[in-house]
Amino acid sequence: MVIIASNFKTNHTRQSTKEFISFINDYLKKDSIKNEIIVFPTATSLDRFNTVPNLTLGTQNAYATIKGSFTGEIGTSQLDEFGIKTILIGHSERRHVLGETQEQIAEKFNFYKELGYKIIYCIGEPLEVKEQGLEKTLEYIYEQFVGIDTNYENLILAYEPVWAIGTGVTATNEDIVNVHNAIKKKISKPLLYGGSVKVNNVKEICSLNNVDGALIGTASWNKEDFIEIIEKTKDI
Ligand SMILES: O=C(CO)COP(=O)(O)O
């Protein structure tokens, strides 16, 4: 059984998120789909949704705080209002676009770990590192585990090569398997792949050795496509 997660990034409104969740929920209920589905809407679209148990809502980000003076951020008092207990940490856009350091990421991880959140923790190398080969790629990825408790019980990992995110360039099966096998040897946690996963390649990718599911951006934002993605992976 695979895990299929959708990262909305800065897409969808409060209204369209509501429609999306209700559409997906109806489909999961009707077809008795058992796969674990996680959706990360924008912070402004979080809400208390009445969903089947295998559809979970998570936050794309939050600050390591209950509340306080952190302009533009949200903390657990805002998440608690909607019963959100799942968080995405270490996404490449937060690392590379928003400039989050490994130290800040580890602090966030530890804060949310202490509270028992399910953490989807992202790792992945930029193109210039990939071009230096597998050994350098793995070295770079292992640096992204500094300060992170990889034995944490509620941890799910997501390997998202930066060069494959939002580019339409999916990693080859060989790239994925090489990295996944190496990570799995060290860390025994569910490991998703992310980076230009589409309706037409999701089944093949999720069937690879040591791939436990997918974390999807672009291809998941259309609700019909997202259902097709779930449909294609429901028997894996
Ligand atoms: O960053 C991603 C999911 O977190 C992947 O994004 P794309 O599926 O758009 O490449």
What would you note in describing this structure?
It is a single chain. The protein is α/β, with parallel strands linked by helices. The mean pLDDT is 97. The chain is 36% helix and 15% strand. It has a single domain, classed as Alpha-Beta Barrel (TIM Barrel). Helix 8 links the parallel strand 7 and strand 8. The site of 1,3-dihydroxyacetonephosphate has 14 residues, from strand 8. It is found in: Cytoplasm. This is Triosephosphate isomerase. It comes from Malaciobacter marinus.
The mean pLDDT is 97
What is the H/E order? EHEEHEHHEHHEHEHEH
Bound molecules: 1,3-dihydroxyacetonephosphate
- Derived from helix and strand composition plus strand pairing, the structural class reads alpha/beta
Question: How far from one another are the termini?
Answer: 6 Å
Q: In percent, how much strand structure appears in the residues?
A: 15-25%
CATH class: Alpha Beta
**Biggest sheet statistics:** 8 strands, parallel
Q: Would you identify the CATH H-level superfamily?
A: Aldolase class I
Look up the CATH topology: TIM Barrel
Q: Can you name the CATH architecture?
A: Alpha-Beta Barrel
Number of helices: 9
**What integer value in Å does the Rg equal?**
17 Å
